[in-house]
Amino acid sequence: MNAISLMPLRALAGRFSPAGSKARLSILIYHRVLARPDALLSAEPDAHAFRWQLQVLASLFNVLPLSEAVERLAKGTLPARAACITFDDGYADNATVALPILQELGLPATFFIATGYLDGGLMFNDQILETLRRVPEGTIEWPELGFEPRLIRGDQDRKQIATELIQGLKHLEPDERQTRAQAIAERSPTPLPTDVMMTREQVKELAAAGMTIGAHTHRHPILARTPDAQARAEIAGGREALEQLLGEPVRLFAYPNGKPGQDYDHRHVVMVREAGFAAAVSTAWGVSTSSSDPHQLARFTPWDQTPGRFGLRLLRNLMTHESGHEV
Fold this sequence. Notes:
It is a single chain. By secondary structure, the chain is an alpha/beta fold. The chain folds into 2 domains: 3-118 and 199-318, TIM Barrel, CATH 3.20.20.370; 124-185, no CATH class. The chain has helices at 3-16, 47-60, 66-75, 92-105, 124-134, 155-169, 174-185, 200-208, 228-246, 266-274, 307-318, and strands at 26-30, 62-63, 82-89, 110-113, 138-142, 147-152, 212-215, 252-254, 279-281. The strands form 3 sheets. Strands 1, 2, 3, 4 and 7 form a 5-stranded parallel beta sheet that branches. Strands 5-6 form a two-stranded antiparallel ribbon. The two termini are 27 Å apart.
């Protein structure tokens, strides 16, 4: 999709997101950017798709660092069609695949890091996914895990089973979730990878490249399912670990999973504010305005597979408030 064909979309974006006090801030969420397509991670863009997605974004929007956008949103000085790029969790491909493309296109991004998985760790969902990736075709029977026999005939079955297991474990208390995920991981016929998540050196590399580093708790618990004292420790602990690593303040936070009222609530907004974060982001779809709570900024994930549909998705989100209702 060339610049000429994007002109009508850019004009519409400017109409719905003017400069100044009536601006609307669009914030995109990414998790991974794959070196090559992966049947088990079909929702994640590969390097080719990520590049054209950012090219479309940059053609339609003015891409700013999130920290600058937050300040200018509050002051009413955002440019028209303002947008930010963010990444959650701390996957190694953020540094090895996404960063070179961001640098090539001259675009800033913010990376929210769950510090408990740096240097060889695996989040519970990746333990499950990578275990299913390694299980051979045939019937799997894990009765001791409360798992009904399932037939694996290929990657689609692996993906479906992994999705069901992840959804079943996602909202458990963090320790129980990890225990169950580890029990599944022990069924892998070969060792699971140790290079899925970033190293500390890669986090430092991102910061040295001018990217913003934000906190995402230590072990990525669902805060609403976590005792208050533990939730506070997770919020503060992730930030402290990053500040020790980088030697500079960490002012931005992303709620794990991030759905308001489901994954976090008002208690956790207060905790984040009291911890001294300047702003925080959720996963409520839509845009943020000058009247938005800076500790509950909206974000969204455009998943479309062609530049035209991707551009239209960006425009449609621009017409959506944080509540998810179109204006």
